[in-house]
Each structure stands twice: as structure tokens, then as C-alpha cells.
Amino acid sequence: MNLKEKLQEFTTQKRGLLATNFYNLETLHGVLQAAANVGEPIILQLTQSSIDYMGLDTAVKLGRAGLKQFGVEGWIHLDHGGSVALVQRCLDAGFDSVMIDGSELPFEENIKITREVVEKAKSYGAHVEAELGFVAKLGQEHGQQGFTQPGEAKEFVEATGVDALAIAIGTAHGFYKEEPNLDIELLSKISKSTAATLVLHGSSGVPHQQVQEAISNGICKINLATEIKNIFMNTLKERLATNEEIDLRKLFPIATQAITQLVSEKLEMVKNV
Ligand code: 13P
Ligand code: ZN
Ligand code: NA
């Protein structure tokens, strides 16, 4: 099933589809083992940094081969694409889905760049996500000013023909200083104003009950990144502090397994709302 169909099916069923970022073989396998164990599909996301780190073709082939190896239904997605040129490279490399993030551009320019990407993606049959409103990037301050407005969401989706829309309803990338408080009422209004798939960015650090409430009220794609990096590195650090082992193949699996445990819990969260 293509991603658009899957997201529509899940939206109707009020189920979440988890989208996790991967950075190397170990983080990829940790995520895929969880999806295989729980029996859920998954979106594998790559940011520009991860693409630069692994190399574009290597990253796509790793993701694709991993899905096959673990017998998981999944799709490869460009997360926070910053330019049409990057989107083009990813489409040529065989991505199933691309995000163009024009959220920091003025409304009309965001529409323009998103429409351009939607046009490009058509001949590839690729799925397109855009962002409207301000979900703070790592290190940025976030307040309530940038929340997505339902009327603008409707106008944006109609003007661009985009498949999925990342919205700002109170999440931020990375961990939170204080517990976040998602604006579910606003979400509900946005959901009624547009048929586009709604995407929740910044899920790390959001209490599970709030994520589930968001899913019940129209969110379908749930993006998770920071908690994966965090548990991998912290597990490794702890182990390295007390272990002289230099064979990374003996050390890495414990961090990979920690990701599997984490992502299994997240998959149960989005599955049983
Ligand atoms: P977190 O890092 O807060 O999980 O956000 C992930 C994300 O939105 C990726 O696009
Ligand atoms: Zn994001
Ligand atoms: Na977050």
C-alpha cells in the first residue's frame, strides 16, 4: 500500500502511524526490530544531516534493505527538507515521501515552494508533507504565537494540494523544560477544516496520553527523533563507563535493544488509542 493510502486508512481508524528518524545501522535496526515485534508499519525518516552523514544512496539502500530484512511494511521519508534541490535529490534516490519545510517563510512563499514540490513529486508518485505554523527547532524558543490557524490550514492545503501537513499545536523539537500542553481544541478545528493528513512533530517528551488525545482528534503521523538518539547514546555511555570491551559488535547491541524497547512502547501507544 502506498503511504498516502495507509495514512488515510489510519486516519479513518483513528490510529497513529509512527515516523522515526534513523542515523546509522544500529538505530535503524533498533526501530525495525520494534516494528517487527509489534507488527506495525513504520515511516523511516532521514534529515539532511543524516543524509550528509551516511550518504544519500547508502541511507536509502540501508533503509530499504532493513525493511526487507525485518519483514516490516514501511516508507522512506525526507524529514524537514530545506530546499527544492534536496527534495529533487531525494526523489531521484527513490524516497517514498518528502517534506518541504517552508514554515519559516511568509505564508505566500511557503505556499509557492510547497506547490513546486507537489508538482515535482507527482511524476514520482511520491507523498508530500509541508509545515504550517511554527514548531520550534532544536534550541529555538517556542511560544504560542506560531500556532497553526484552521482557516490558514484550509487555504494552504487547497492552494498547494499537499498530502500531509505538520501543524503547530504546542509541541517543540527535542525535550521540554516544562511538560507540554497540546491545544487539542485547536487541533480539532484544524482537523475539521482540512482533509490533509495531520502530522505531529516534536513528539519526544510529550506524555503518551497527550499523544493519544491528539490521535483521537485528528493527528495521524507521529514524528519521533530525540528520544531515540538519547536512549542510544545514554545506554552506550553507561556501558562504556564500566566496560573495557572494544568490539563494537558486542557493545552496540545493548543500545540497539534499548531503542527496540522504547519504540515498541511508542508503537503500542499509537496503536491502542
Ligand atoms: P523530537 O525530536 O522532539 O522527537 O521531534 C522529532 C521530529 O519532529 C522530526 O521531524
Ligand atoms: Zn520535526
Ligand atoms: Na519534542
From TrEMBL:
GO biological process: carbohydrate metabolic process
Cofactor: Zn(2+)
Pfam families documented for this protein: F_bP_aldolase
Protein residues bound to dihydroxyacetone phosphate: G174, G202, S203, S204, N223, L224, A225, T226
Catalytic residue list: D79
Entry-linked InterPro entries: Aldolase_TIM, Class_II_FBP_aldolase, FBA_II
A GO molecular-function annotation: zinc ion binding
Name the UniProt record assigns to this protein: Class II fructose-bisphosphate aldolase
Organism from which the protein derives: Salinimicrobium profundisediminis
Taxonomic lineage from the root: Bacteria, Pseudomonadati, Bacteroidota, Flavobacteriia, Flavobacteriales
